[in-house]
Here is the input.
Amino acid sequence: MSPDVDGGTQAASEEASAAPARGKQRKLKYKGQKKSWTRDPAKWSVQEDEGLILQEKTHKQLERLLVSDPSVVCKKVLLIGKGVDTMNPQQNDPGRSNSPISHDGGRSEEATETSVVVATGTSPAEKTPKIQSPPTSVDVCSISQDNGELVKIVHVIDHKQEQGPGEIEGLDWDQAKLNEEIRRCTGQLNQLKCGLPPDDDESFWSQHDDEQREKLNEQLALYRIKYHMILQEEQLDDAELIQNYPPHILEEEGYFVDYEEEFEWYFEPEYCNYVGFQDYQRLVLRDNAEYLHWGDYHEIKSTFQNDREFVEFYERLSSKTKWIVKFLGVSDSERQRIQRVAYYQAVKIAAEYHNIITRLVYRGFDEYKWSVSYDFSWYNKIANLYFEIWKRVARQKVDFITALKEMYAQDICPKCRFDIKLELDYIPRSGGMKFNYDNYIADIDETVQDSEAYSLIMEAVKIFVPKLKTYYDYAKKKLDIAEKIGVIPPKAAC
Here is the structure.
């Protein structure tokens, strides 16, 4: 389906039609850990009950588990360990469906017969005190994690009235006007299709001579040393660093390449062969199974100017279209129009930038839709479960197991019935739900209002059920690392 119909879900076709033809692009190899799950959509099947996508084999195994209650679907498949999160990451493909529900697919066979909300983290060293919601402008005091310990974070809530339907630009336009405005904004995009020049650009693709290679090796070595010192909580200014590590020391130590083994990033060796790459482009984040499409992110090879503009674009898009969550439960036809209006606002914002890669505009919009849908469907489901447990345990002073038995008998939170059953099957041992409740939920004060308690629980759920990260997260983290080690100038200096 083209973007003109569903609001940008087929980014490739929009990109192809919007961007002019360019010279042949080099296909660079890359190193990195390969994902263990399939990316082949042909191996997936759609479970209509919740609009989820599961691998065919996993789906069949779940059916055998759910003979007594076939309407229940287990979405996240996690192993229950002794305080260890052993989740096998799932592959998600944002924007490939009009469903407002998030899509997960692919997981290891050993994890297919375990529960949905049992992700656990390292047991905190200390329990947090009772959490109470402060008054007025400081609306929520939530739980977070810092080096394995639970800490409290105060969130300041903006109480300004959100956009109503009449204030959403494009919502009251007819289809012809909406399409015309999208075409106009798309035509204003800078048409920067790729972060790299054509294959015949010798000024970029020329390889380093010996002297250039030596200088580059020395510079990259200093970056590695600087980041190593940051991890060790040590500090040297650039002058001291150069004085303490002269060129002959750097060469003798193999330019400290082995330091990269302790980093979550590395300098891609192949990108170091060509004179045209920025050091920022040579720096890539490792495939540690926390990103939605790491292989695609790695291949983008954007400059720091590209990524800075993309991050700003994504944040503006998120702020401008917060209203979209109000329409996630509408009919398919209405949802398509809502997505189309949001897509118009995305390309309108993107048209204001000069360095953003066109491909990232479409990817960013698709991943933004996926993220909003994930929060709406998945996090709400889990937060509702723990909210019901909390009401019984904290307010009614019922013990945890009794609360679960009551909820199971009364069919409270039917979408999580399978998970409740698995937790009860762990008696007398403690399962993942009990661990999560004790360490993330139990300290919420029973006197807070329901809405405040739910907000606190939602913040906790986002900690112990992590969401795969998007290119926005990838770029933001890479920019932060690059600034810390001096690969790029601070944003304020640009």
In short: The first helix runs from residue 3 to 6.
